[in-house]
């Protein structure tokens, strides 16, 4: 005998002690699905029959059950459950978690129970106990349905061995159907617009009078329509819409979820007493003119609809008024009510309409929820939900969402068929719904341990202390999150060189990529400035529309930790305008079809941003070192005239000379990167990545493309932009490799910082995973400002060579994955929270204690 | 770094006996942080000059010796080149007998006063007082001071980082001079000196024997010399947070306190602010209180003293401050501890935990926010958390003129992003009150000046619904 139960439900076993519940449970369910009161007693006091701990044991039963149900796990309660009072807390749990309670009653005769108990230790609690349990059970049988059990099975000892439990898919579960879908908003009887929309979507509609409600609709290959409900009322031809949609559902060309208007119609057709307002009277009147068979077909059609549908492995959810994450896939009256009406706050607005609770603002689910119900002027994305009711009957438009393309197809209403109580524009603001919502982020999304998944790395874990550090840095120093669409990853140096006098050398970097299986690299001259991310918009209207910032801003320039680059707002504006003009001159707005661009750059001179550092650290050290060593040298020279023979003195003089040269080298090198900045004309911007524009991120383009594309900026605006020198190097061509090394030597000899070696492709994966996106090789003179003036004295260099890169490199890869994910999410117009968590993650990782010299 | 000591005592070469170092030898001494060399640039009966050259190992300063830990985080550091506590340690090691006053061959020389000149080519004088401090420290001991400022990089004008080249001359015993240098160089340098050990107090008393107690700057010297002990304990935490070390509120108070007249020292402005806040909360009958940006927790302590405040929640962004607060909270009496919760949080993110409170105090926090972040702050506190009463205090910029030590146009604290005049604060407060349905009144906080108002200002926002 097969007993069907929903795949996710709360199974309550009911039977007297000795009825065979545990045996039954173990035969049909996984051990982890069963919560037994006996086991809980034993967990608490080591004795599964100790009635003194019963209350605590049941607390434990309920707690475990609640956790499992919250996680969506089928749960079996193995306790006697013979009294209504004992079942009542379980019913409350089922209601709270919106699962069906299923009763399985084991009707084992009292005699058999008693015999079994005799054979078991510690069960000699007297025959009267079992007798009372059997009595209670008998009385319960009549009330189980009324208590709220949706399924009740009663099993006799004769049947028990033949039982098979069959788990049935939830009605809402269509996760194995992957689409593509055309999801259509509230039609409300607008037959002409629906017909036009279906045609535009590529459906062919054939009239087949007398057959299949008069229509045969053929979708474009592989596609299917999904209606979000409210097919009827208000519009010119509710019956026509019903016929068309019913025919499509009948043939499998469409699916439909119920709307509140449809639900009310079904109740009216079932003869219930419903108020015939909001167009229902007209629909009923039109149906009167059809026949009873059709009316009953309509009623059955609506009643058979499932409150909401989940498709595509859970990535798509369709419900009329939306569906909160915690209700998705669940079954209860509340779930259906939510699907039909949404939630209201209990208040009414100035038009006398109930104020709807903004569930979508708090939505954090993985599944895209497509819904209607609330008419708005244009479809609105908010936190991975989208309202596609654009008020066709009110003279708006009928909207379809193509999934997975996420494109809208609209047919404007041919006429205004009804007047809304509340104008469609009532809630419209200057900013889009998502931006309005994203003005302030929620702390709970960024606190504690976070696990982020990115397309390049499936899981990146941020520890609690890392997110705490990021919160602090973000709140104290970073620019407004609306602008912060990217933070660059840290960059590792090359492996330590063993060549005399060198700590870093290109040979190691080139070798790293050769070993990683990369054939071609791009070597770029490294500018000694400060990292700067520049976001530039065509005008402040774009900044407002796309970034949700208010005021006259046209862009922003920020540092690698998200700080505003310029303290002087006037200088920032002048700088941004110059960038903007260069892009206008190149016609990028048109050629890339984008109102904004994000650039990853080096901003020079170093002293522009590092002025404080130079004033408080670099210059003083240079002055102190120069004065100190020259005083030492003077004293030594005076001594050598007295003690010309001293070998110790000669050695000391030679060593001091080396130190003096090192200090002079240090002073020369830091001064090389400093020049006074009086005005905009003193700044230089060297962009090396075109990060993204409205249409796409650009990290799939190779670095040669980036270099060439960005070089045009220097031609357009040579006062600000500089083109970075680069070489493309075939790693299998030894001559090319040597030329690259020579180039590095000439760059560093001329005072340059060094170079960055990148695989030609931005993102490279090999069998071991991601490859470093870039490796820097800094020149020997430059390294004085990193490792101190005297770092290259032999006794110092030997010790400095001991440095570990693995921590830095692992960080670089995780930060790369997060940075590019942030770009993707921003370009895909995901909610700010989703972009922010990636840049937040980069800052969190940057709090790791890694040697800052690397 | 090199120090030279010279004398014109006759015969000048007696210096070699006193120091136990032969003028014709070049000697070398290994120290934990590098190598000291001793040699004589001049050695005649008329004039003798000894040099102590300290080659500080710059790598060991950062990385530490094998098995040890480095004391600096930066390789680019002036420590190897300036006279610092490292010099004191070197003096103690190389000239230990001279400092102890031991000279077996010529015991009479120990007490022999002679004309001595010490030259320190680079001394870091970080105190604003600069040259004046050098004079205050050395002149009472009989030195004549010659100080030459060292030019920084010419491109770096207006640096406040000053080095002096010092020449100090006096008629003293060598022992006296060396102990003076030993104690006063770290005091002058005023930087961390980890290499001086734990027995700091007794060392100071020994080295200062006979002169420190009478020194007019005794208090300053002792304080500077010993307060570094405290910093020793904080080293770990400081290194941890050095990148974004939050400035403590005390620095602000140092400025504020200058308003108090020396005769009648009033309670600090900080304390006054808290007193007013507590009175307000008390009068409003508030029980559940938020202290947003609770910092060091001074206001929390006041709130816990009054049982009317049944729930006191302190929120702080700085994890470092919060860790200290949590430690302190553990030591509170149980009935106070129960009423207190501490949260890590930011005023720029909506926070569910802040809902349902009677009142929020936001004391000297506003001015630490970027102007671009104020909109988020307003939505979070006034819109979302929406306590019935909000008390906001912030400095009154107009009053800054009355702080003699504060340059014009400079804010009171390096972390302040802005400071508002009374009119600016009022305009902001009224706009916020109107947007979020509060009634607001603004009051001066602290002693009021007829032209410039009070040092601080308080906005009292009451829920108008």
UniProtKB/TrEMBL annotation, chain A:
GO terms for cellular component: cytoplasm. CDD domains: MPP_Prp_like. GO terms for molecular function: phosphatase activity. Gene3D superfamilies: 3.60.21.10, DNA ligase/mRNA capping enzyme, P-loop containing nucleotide triphosphate hydrolases. Residues 469-849 form the Polynucleotide kinase-phosphatase ligase domain. Residues 180-376 form the Calcineurin-like phosphoesterase domain. It comes from the Bacteria. SUPFAM superfamilies: DNA ligase/mRNA capping enzyme, catalytic domain, Metallo-dependent phosphatases, P-loop containing nucleoside triphosphate hydrolases. InterPro entries: Ap4A_hydrolase (IPR050126), Calcineurin-like_PHP (IPR004843), Metallo-depent_PP-like (IPR029052), MPP_PrpE-like (IPR041780), P-loop_NTPase (IPR027417), PNKP_bac (IPR024028), PNKP_ligase_dom (IPR032380), Ser/Thr-sp_prot-phosphatase (IPR006186). This is Metallophosphoesterase. It comes from Herpetosiphon geysericola.
UniProtKB/TrEMBL annotation, chain B:
The keyword Magnesium applies. Pfam families: Hen1_L, Methyltransf_12. Its cofactor is Mg(2+). Keywords: Magnesium, Metal-binding, Methyltransferase, RNA-binding, RNA-mediated gene silencing, S-adenosyl-L-methionine, Transferase. This is Small RNA 2'-O-methyltransferase. One of its GO terms (molecular function) is small RNA 2'-O-methyltransferase activity. CDD domains: AdoMet_MTases. Its EC number is 2.1.1.386. Residues 290-372 form the Methyltransferase type domain. InterPro entries: 3'-RNA_MeTfrase_Hen1_bac, Hen1, Hen1_N, Hen1_N_sf, Methyltransf_12, SAM-dependent_MTases_sf. It catalyses: small RNA 3'-end nucleotide + S-adenosyl-L-methionine = small RNA 3'-end 2'-O-methylnucleotide + S-adenosyl-L-homocysteine + H(+). Residues 446-465 are annotated as: Disordered. It comes from the Bacteria. Residues 1-240 form the Hen1 N-terminal domain. Belongs to the methyltransferase superfamily. HEN1 family. GO terms for biological process: regulatory ncRNA-mediated gene silencing; RNA methylation.
């Amino acid at each position: 005998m097969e007993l069907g139960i929903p795949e996710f439900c709360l199974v309550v076993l009911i039977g007297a002690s000795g009825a065979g519940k545990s045996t039954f449970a173990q035969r049909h369910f996984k051990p982890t699905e069963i919560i037994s009161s006996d086991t809980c007693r034993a967990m608490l006091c080591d004795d599964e029959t100790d009635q003194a701990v019963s209350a605590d044991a049941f607390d434990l039963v309920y707690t475990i059950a609640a956790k499992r149900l919250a996680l969506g796990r089928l749960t079996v309660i193995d306790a006697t459950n013979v009294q209504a009072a004992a079942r009542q807390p379980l019913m409350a749990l089922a209601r709270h978690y919106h699962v069906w309670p299923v009763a399985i009653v084991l009707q084992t005769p009292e005699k058999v129970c008693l015999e079994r108990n005799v054979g078991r230790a510690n069960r000699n609690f007297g025959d009267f106990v079992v007798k009372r349990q059997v009595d209670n059970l008998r009385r319960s049988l009549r009330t189980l349905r009324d208590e709220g059990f949706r399924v009740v099975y009663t099993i006799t000892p004769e049947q028990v061995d033949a039982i098979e439990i069959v788990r049935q898919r939830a009605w809402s579960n269509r996760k194995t159907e992957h689409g593509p879908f055309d999801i259509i908003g509230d039609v409300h009887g607008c037959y002409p617009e629906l017909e036009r929309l279906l045609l535009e979507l590529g459906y062919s509609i054939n009239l087949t009078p007398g057959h299949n409600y008069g229509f045969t609709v053929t979708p474009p290959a592989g596609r299917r329509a999904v209606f979000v409900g409210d097919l009827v009322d208000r519009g010119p031809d509710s019956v026509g819409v019903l016929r068309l949609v019913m025919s499509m559902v009948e043939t499998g060309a469409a699916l439909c979820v119920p709307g509140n208007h449809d639900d009310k119609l079904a109740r009216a057709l079932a003869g219930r007493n419903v108020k015939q307002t909001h167009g229902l009277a007209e629909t009923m009147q039109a149906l009167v003119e059809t026949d009873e068979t059709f009316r009953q077909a309509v009623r059955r059609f609506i009643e058979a609809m499932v409150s909401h549908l989940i498709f595509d492995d859970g990535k798509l959810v369709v419900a009329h008024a939306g569906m909160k994450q915690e209700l998705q896939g669940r079954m209860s009256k509340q779930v259906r009510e939510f699907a039909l009406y949404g939630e209201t706050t209990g208040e009414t607005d100035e038009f006398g309409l109930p104020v709807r609770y903004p569930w979508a603002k708090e939505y954090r689910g993985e599944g895209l929820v497509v819904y209607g119900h609330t008419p708005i002027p244009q479809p609105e994305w908010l936190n991975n939900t989208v309202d596609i009711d654009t008020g066709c009957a009110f003279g708006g438009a009928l909207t379809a969402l193509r999934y997975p393309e996420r494109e809208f197809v609209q047919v404007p209403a041919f006429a205004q068929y009804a007047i809304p109580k509340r104008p469609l524009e009532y809630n419209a603001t200057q900013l889009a719904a998502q931006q309005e919502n994203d003005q302030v982020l929620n702390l709970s999304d960024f606190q504690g341990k976070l696990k982020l998944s990115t397309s390049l790395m499936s899981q990146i874990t941020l520890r609690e202390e890392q997110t705490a550090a990021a919160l602090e840095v973000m709140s104290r120093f970073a620019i407004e999150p609306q602008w912060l669409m990217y933070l660059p990853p840290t960059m590792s140096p090359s492996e330590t060189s063993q060549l005399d006098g060198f700590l870093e050398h290109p040979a190691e970097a080139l070798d790293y990529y050769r070993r990683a299986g990369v054939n071609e690299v791009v070597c770029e001259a490294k500018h000694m400035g400060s990292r700067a991310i520049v976001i530039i918009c065509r005008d402040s209207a774009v900044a407002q529309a796309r970034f949700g910032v208010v005021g006259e801003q046209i862009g922003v320039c920020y540092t690698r930790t998200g700080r505003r680059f310029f303290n002087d707002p006037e200088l920032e504006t002048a700088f941004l305008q110059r960038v903007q003009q260069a892009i206008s001159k190149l016609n990028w707005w048109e050629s890339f079809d984008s109102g904004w661009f994000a650039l990853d750059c080096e901003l020079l001179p170093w002293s522009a941003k590092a002025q404080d550092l130079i004033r408080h650290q670099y210059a003083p050290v240079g002055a102190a070192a120069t004065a100190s060593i020259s005083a030492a040298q003077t004293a030594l020279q005076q001594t050598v005239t007295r003690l010309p023979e001293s070998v110790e003195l000669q050695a000391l003089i030679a060593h001091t000379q080396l130190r003096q040269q090192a200090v002079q080298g240090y002073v020369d090198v830091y001064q090389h990167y400093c020049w006074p900045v009086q005005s905009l004309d003193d700044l230089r911007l060297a962009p090396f990545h075109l990060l993204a524009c409205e249409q796409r991120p650009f990290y799939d383009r190779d670095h040669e493309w980036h270099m060439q594309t960005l070089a045009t900026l220097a031609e357009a605006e040579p006062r600000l932009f500089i083109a970075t020198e680069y070489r493309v190097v075939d790693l299998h061509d030894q001559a090319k490799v040597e030329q690259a090394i020579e180039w590095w030597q000439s760059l560093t000899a001329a005072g340059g910082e060094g170079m960055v070696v990148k695989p030609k492709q931005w993102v490279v994966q090999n069998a071991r995973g991601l490859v470093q996106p870039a490796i820097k090789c800094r020149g020997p003179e430059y390294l004085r400002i990193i490792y101190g003036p005297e770092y290259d004295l032999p006794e110092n260099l030997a010790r400095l060579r001991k440095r570990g890169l693995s921590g830095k490199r692992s960080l670089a890869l995780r930060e790369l994955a997060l940075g590019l994910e942030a770009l993707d999410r921003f370009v895909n117009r995901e909610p700010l929270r989703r972009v922010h968590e990636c840049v937040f993650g980069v800052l969190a990782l940057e709090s790791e204690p890694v040697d800052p010299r690397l | 770094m090199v120090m030279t000591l010279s004398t014109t005592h006759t015969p000048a070469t007696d210096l070699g006996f006193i120091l136990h170092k032969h003028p014709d030898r070049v000697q070398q001494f290994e120290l934990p942080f590098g190598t000291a060399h001793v040699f004589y640039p001049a050695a005649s009966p008329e004039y003798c000059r000894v040099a102590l050259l300290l080659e500080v190992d710059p790598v060991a300063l950062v990385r530490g010796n094998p098995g040890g830990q480095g004391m600096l985080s930066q390789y680019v550091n002036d420590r190897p080149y300036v006279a610092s506590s490292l010099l004191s340690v070197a003096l103690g090691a190389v000239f230990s007998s001279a400092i102890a006053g031991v000279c077996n061959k010529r015991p009479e020389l120990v007490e022999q006063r002679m004309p001595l000149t010490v030259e320190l080519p680079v001394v870091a004088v970080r105190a604003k007082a600069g040259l004046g401090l050098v004079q205050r420290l050395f002149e009472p001991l009989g030195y004549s001071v010659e100080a030459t400022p060292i030019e920084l990089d010419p491109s770096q004008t207006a640096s406040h980082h000053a080095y002096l080249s010092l020449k100090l001359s006096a008629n003293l015993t060598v022992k006296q001079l060396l102990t003076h240098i030993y104690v006063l160089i770290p005091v002058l340098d005023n930087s961390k000196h980890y290499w001086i050990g734990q027995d700091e107090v007794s060392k100071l008393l020994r080295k200062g024997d006979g002169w420190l107690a009478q020194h007019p700057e005794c208090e300053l010297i002792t304080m500077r010399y010993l307060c570094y002990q405290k910093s020793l304990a904080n080293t770990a935490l400081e290194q941890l947070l050095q990148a974004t070390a939050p400035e403590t509120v005390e620095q602000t108070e140092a400025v504020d306190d200058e308003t108090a007249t020396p005769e009648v020292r009033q309670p600090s402005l900080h304390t006054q602010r808290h007193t007013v806040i507590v009175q307000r909360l008390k009068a409003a009958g508030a029980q559940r209180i938020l202290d947003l940006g609770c910092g060091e927790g001074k206001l929390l302590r006041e709130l816990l003293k009054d049982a009317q405040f049944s729930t006191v929640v302190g929120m702080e962004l700085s994890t470092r401050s919060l860790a200290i607060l949590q430690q302190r909270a553990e030591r509170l009496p149980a009935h106070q501890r129960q009423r207190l919760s501490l949260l890590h949080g930011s005023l720029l993110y909506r926070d569910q935990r802040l809902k349902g409170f009677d009142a929020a105090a936001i004391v000297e926090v506003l001015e630490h926010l970027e102007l671009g972040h104020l909109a988020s702050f307003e939505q979070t506190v006034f819109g979302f958390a929406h306590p019935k009463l909000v008390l906001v205090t912030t400095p009154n910029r107009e009053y800054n003129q009355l702080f003699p030590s504060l340059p014009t146009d400079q804010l009171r604290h390096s972390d302040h992003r802005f400071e508002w005049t009374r009119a600016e604060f009022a305009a902001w407060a009224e706009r916020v009150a109107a947007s979020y349905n509060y009634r607001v009144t603004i009051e001066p906080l602290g002693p009021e000046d007829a032209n410039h108002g009070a040092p601080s200002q308080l906005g009292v926002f009451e829920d108008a619904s």
